[in-house]
Amino acid sequence: MDTITETSVTKRSANTPATATVRTPSAPPKKPTFWSKLGSAFAMFRNGKSIAGLSILGFFVLVAIFADVLAPYSPTKVDNTARFQPPSAQHWLGTTHIGEDVLSQVIHGTRGVIVVGFLAAIIATLIAIVIGVMSGYLRGWRSEGLSALTNVFLVLPGIPLIIIVATMFEDPPLWVIALVLGLIGWAWGARVLRAQTMSLRSRDFVQAAKANGEPLRRIITVEMLPNLMALIAASFVGTVTAAIIGLTTLSYIGVIPVTTYNWGTILNWASAQGAFRLGQWWWFLPPGLCIAAIGVALSLINFGIDEYVNPRLRSAGERARAMKKKGLNVNDTVTVVRTTPQSEKR
Fold first, then answer.
1. Engineering a disulfide at 50: which of 45, 62, 89, 112 sits with its beta carbon 3.0 to 4.6 angstroms away?
2. Which has the closest alpha carbon to 117: 295, 255, 296, 253?
3. Pairwise pLDDT comparison (237 vs 79), residue with the higher score
4. CA-closest candidate to residue 107, choices 140, 137, 72
5. How far apart are CA 75 and CA 64, in angstroms?
């Protein structure tokens, strides 16, 4: 339907003025497209911190995908003539106590870290969305019951549970590890989503949808979830971080079999063979730096999401960028006052 705007035109004549009203159709408002909605949903990743974190994380994802192509050797290939060899042209990150190439082990270990981290985060985020949003939207005993379930999983000790599950398998596959990490890592995200959903359920647009007779699934998926995307993304990133730290920790202490290559198992072998004591830095330093790098990447993404969600952080970031463009020091506590020359005052 075209919107009609009225324009008054006054014509002056010799005798009496004549006034006419001309109606011209205005352009209809543009309907948001799928790509515009998608772009607005991921606007939280457009700042510098998120872009830097996503770039580092994307690098590790590509390494995990193309590990077989990038690794110069098989991670289990033994070279008896090159034991405890420091970095060289043949072995860029040196070799282990039996002549295995450390670089190949680090590259192949990236795949296990990425798979477990993302799979556990997907499982935990889905559970957190279902339980957190439902417990925040519903009222009465159903809401309190879901909240009590969340509190139980908040205090549930994760590492002992994983150790018990791992002992049930001789060689637990990666999906089992990810499943256990996901099942014990959803409670924090569900708690945050419940609090925000309780705030959203009293908003005007939700009340209008209920008054129009919209079904519950549409109210949650169409009206609420788009407003929870930033919190869901932050919960996902935090769960990836916790899952990666949990995997490498369990591998380092020997709960997960050392035949499953990841950065934690490399550190386990290095510690068992005395690499820390003998100063063979090329064996334990690369996997440690990889753990730190992916932790920094996920932290940058989380900082970028916080800056998008928090209006104070967003305005402070915009003000700092504006000051840098003008050549001012952001950390300077002294206010720069512009003085007007005497010639201009006159």
1. 45
2. 295
3. 237
4. 72
5. 14
Please give the distance of CA 153 from its chain centroid, rounded to a whole number: 22
Beta bridge partners of 21: 8
Q: Which residues are within 8 A (CB) of 239 and not within 5 positions of it... i.e. 6 or more apart?
A: 120, 121, 124, 125, 182, 185, 186, 189
Torsion of the alpha carbons at 305, 309, 312 and 314, rounded to the nearest 10: 50
Residue 245 to residue 57: CA distance in whole angstroms: 15
253 within 8 A of 126, measured Cβ to Cβ: no
pLDDT tens sequence across 270-325: 988 888 888 889 999 999 999 999 999 999 998 888 877 766 655 655 666 667 66
Average pLDDT (324-346) is: 58
Q: Nearest CA to 232 among 328, 160, 308, 292?
A: 308
